[in-house]
Predict the structure.
Amino acid sequence: MPTPPTLMSHVPMPGNAQQSQLREREAIDIDDDDTSRRGQQQQQKQRKDPALCPTDDEATVPRAKSPVNKRSYDYVWRSAVAGGFAGCAAKTIVAPLDRVKILFQSHNPHFVKYTGSWFGVGAAIKDIYRQEGPTGLYRGHSATLLRIFPYAAIKFLAYEQIRAVVIHKKEHETPFRRLISGSMAGVTSVFFTYPLELIRVRLAFETRRDGRSSLRSICKQIYHEHRYPKPPTSSSAVASVVTAVAPQSGLVNFYRGFSPTLLGMLPYAGMSFLTHDTAGDLLRHPKIAKWTTLPQVENAPHGKAAPLRSWAELFAGGIAGLVSQTVSYPLEVVRRRMQVGGAVGDGHRLRIGETAKLIISERGLRGFFVGLTIGYVKVVPMVAASFYTYERLKMALGI
């Protein structure tokens, strides 16, 4: 009769097979540890040099770009170049309208009859074309480009730099801070480029009937203009007149009309940047973003908003031009009259108050809005083209 199995017969005794299995498990564990250690070393090496042996994930998913350093030299020159070319492109598009607007604002005696109607703009353009040819529509444009490239470059660069200081956190993104950033950027740019603007206006103010002046003669004329006080009542007052005139001639004449320019630039540049940025935020609203925005490019800086589609970017810029032009136009009219003050009348320089009184006496309050219609026709596409070109060049330059 067979013996029943005991409890001990079911307990496995360590033998050669069990020892082999234990050694295999230990070897596998060691291999796993080595593999994990090598993987960690490889990841550390790739962090130091991403170009070496990228993983599958790194090959398919673009690496996030770090936040852009707006104070770096690379960002500064790229931003300045983008802004300069944006300004040149915008001014070239509207150069004929700009010439007509200057003639209207400065009350050129040969073109006063065309003011006050939409048809007058076309008639004025035809008159210029008939008298001076196609080049007459771009008279003064070379001086415009010489001025607008540094002006636009400084303006956009200054806005980016000032904005980075004033709005250094997302919670600081307020309309007031945007307005201040834009206003300070405009003042900075106009301070460095105003003499070129004065020369451009003088060139554009002249017509063939007046006879053309060279750039050199215009500069000499501006340099030697004086601000005369009231005529002396006796010969004994001549010395005091000379004393009053002497310190106010020369290089200071190239800043004729600078005060109203500053006053006008504060609302113009401020409202321009504020309106553009606000319109851009509205157009990027999640509910309509799929129709108004483009996919983010690979080399876009971290945290940069998605670029707007062409029509949306042009729309935002056009609204910015419309609002800023309306707010600042009366001061712009005063500035133009002060700039050409030496080319009309007795050649003496007028102050802001004197110029405003002269405009009111000639045309009334409507005189402050002469040429506003052509201002809209010119400024809306100009500002739209400027912002559009600037944003697209920033994308191309990777900033």
About this structure: The domain at 73-210+254-397 is CATH 1.50.40.10 (Mitochondrial carrier fold). The chain has one domain: 73-210+254-397. Confidence is low (pLDDT under 50) at residues 6-11, 48-64, 228-247. The chain has 14 helices and no strands.
